[in-house]
Amino acid sequence: MQCNQSFGLFDPMIDPVPETPFGQSLSIIACKARRLLRHRHSEQVIDASSAITWMQNEYFEKAAIDRIKEISNQYALSVDGDTLYEADPVDVIGWLMDGADKPIGSADYMEIARLAKTIPTPENTSSLDALQRGLELFELDDDMFPDAQEWEYFAVLALHLLSECVACCSDSVPHRSLIQHTTDMPKVLGKAGELAIFAMQAVCHAETEKMNQKVVAANTERRVKELSLKKRRLKGFEATNRPKKVAMARAKEIALQLWQEDTAQEARIGEIADKVYRQLAKEDYTHALPDTAESLKRWIKGIAPEYAHKGGKPRKRHG
Q1: Distance of alpha carbon 144 from alpha carbon 136, whole angstroms
Q2: C-alpha distances out from residue 17 to 12, 121, 135, 199, Å
Q3: pTM
Q4: I want to staple 4 with a disulfide (CB 3.0 to 4.6 A). Which of 49, 224, 242, 306 is the partner?
Q5: Taking a C-beta distance cutoff of 8 angstroms, is the pair 148, 206 a contact?
Q6: Interatomic CA distance for residues 32 and 162, integer angstroms
């Protein structure tokens, strides 16, 4: 498919679209595609259409070679000693469809012919599918179509298909010659209707892809903002809790020292917590201390010796 061939008769960005015989349908397709490409000019669109042709052809060639290689290896096929994928894919596909010289009607003949029909070609693959596969093979770095987005190429494809449809609907012989030089108007209009459907599919695909890209971009931006906010909150949390962590570490040091000095093993957690609290206050940790010494018990409970967890000494009875 030569995408820019019919653009010589139809300017993709400015030429009017006929209402006959499909009413406003073609105008809707044109408006959608041109709106998507509103920052492009005709020359860029025409250049992009040439790139589409090239990508589609590259896809068909690569897909054919890969599939032919599979079939060739499976059935050990060759032509005059040469591997099939070294020959012209078009010739090989025709040969495979004829059964690859296997006896007519044999199982191999039937299976090879069936597999040959699964090889992607312009005849069994839509322009939309071929473009999708072609885009997967290449990076978008066309200097004539700078900063290209994938969805733009589908909008260009829609305009190409639309131009072919316009050519079918035209009374001009040169236009009509684009569609196999036919003068069978029912056939021509049938082809025009098919092209119009494909053009609508292409432009709808472009709109969907553009919308998906916006959604992905918005989600990414939202995620970046969320992570940035979370980072700021963590930073603030760490800044707030850093003095407290230092005070807790110092509290444990003081408590361990006091229990090491408690050779009689009588000091309980509450008693040590009170002493630690007072010492920290003297060391200017007041801003990081809990409200009471009782609350500080949680800081040192994990390092307290077993005896410190027991209840206090029983009070002596008087009288």
Answers
A1: 20
A2: 10, 30, 29, 13
A3: 0.64
A4: 49
A5: no
A6: 12
Please answer whether residues 124 and 93 qualify as being in contact, where contact means their C-beta atoms are separated by less than 8 angstroms: no
Alpha-carbon distance of 281 to 255, in angstroms, equals 14
Say how many residues make up the chain.
319
Q: Tell me the sheet residues that pair with 83.
A: 78
Query: Half-sphere exposure (CA, 13 Å, Cβ side) for 248?
Result: 14
**Tell me, what amino acid is at 166?**
V
Instruction: Give 240's contacts (C-beta < 8 A, 6+ positions apart).
Output: none
Respond yes or no on whether the N-terminal peptide bond of residue 21 is cis (omega within 30° of 0).
yes
Strands of the chain (E only): list them. 78-79, 82-83
Residue 224 has a CB neighbour count (10 Å cut-off) of 10
Q: Locate tokens 């008693």: which residue?
A: 271
For 116-163, the pLDDT digits (tens) are: 888 899 989 999 999 999 999 988 888 889 999 999 999 999 999 999
With a CB cutoff of 8 Å and minimum separation 6, the contacts of 128 are 154, 157, 198, 201, 202, 205
For 308, the 3-state DSSP assignment is: helix
Query: What is the phi/psi pair of residue 304, to 5°?
Result: -70, 140
Per the CB < 8 A criterion, the answer to whether 42 and 14 are in contact is yes
State the sign of the Cα–Cα–Cα–Cα dihedral 281, 286, 291, 294. negative
- 78 three-state secondary structure: strand
Q: What is the DSSP string of 296-307?
A: HHHHHGGG--GG
Which tokens go with 277? 């609290």
